Amino acid sequence: MSVDTPRDATQMPPQSAYSALTGIELISVTPEEVICRMPVTEKLTNRNGALHGGAIMTLADNAAGTCAFINIPASKSNTTIESKTNFLRGVRVGDVVTAHCVPLHSGRTTHVLQTTMTRSDGKTVAVTTQTHLILEWTD
What residues does each domain of the chain span? Predict the structure, then answer.
């Protein structure tokens, strides 16, 4: 494998402890699309009893970070440098939110990714657009 060849799914590290804490599960990881799910529990709600916006953004960041990561060479890493979320509707406890992330731009130094999150009834909950900086990863 060339130093500049993007990773494949077998080279993906496991999910972070934070992702596990929020219950995020990776469903599918390809360079074209990342799909993950997050069950809505009491611990992820705001004071109104709906899924907290920060939890939605966590799901989006996980999906986009994974999508950027699979699209870059193993010698590099990535970090979110910009994130914008449009919140469209609430989600109740007991539901599951599914995130679909696709790359809009995959350049040498930045990637732009869009994540659409839906409830189990198929309605869109939120849409997040992120820019990720591609980093040389050295110790």
Answer: 9-136
Amino acid 1: pLDDT: 46
pLDDT digits (tens, 9 = 90+) for 30-83: 999 999 999 999 999 999 999 999 999 999 999 999 999 999 988 899 999 999
Q: Rounded CA gap, 4 and 21, in Å?
A: 33
DSSP result, the chain = --TTSBP-GGGPPPPPHHHHHHT-EEEEE-SS-EEEEEE--GGGB-TTSBBPHHHHHHHHHHHHHHHHHHTSBTTEEEEEEEEEEEE----BTT-EEEEEEEEEEE-SSEEEEEEEEE-TTS-EEEEEEEEEEEEE---
For the record, the structure tokens of 28 come out as: 């599918």
Residue 138 scores a pLDDT above 70: no
Report the Cα 58 to chain-centroid distance in Å: 7
pTM given for the model: 0.93
CATH 1.20.1250.20 matches 9-136: no
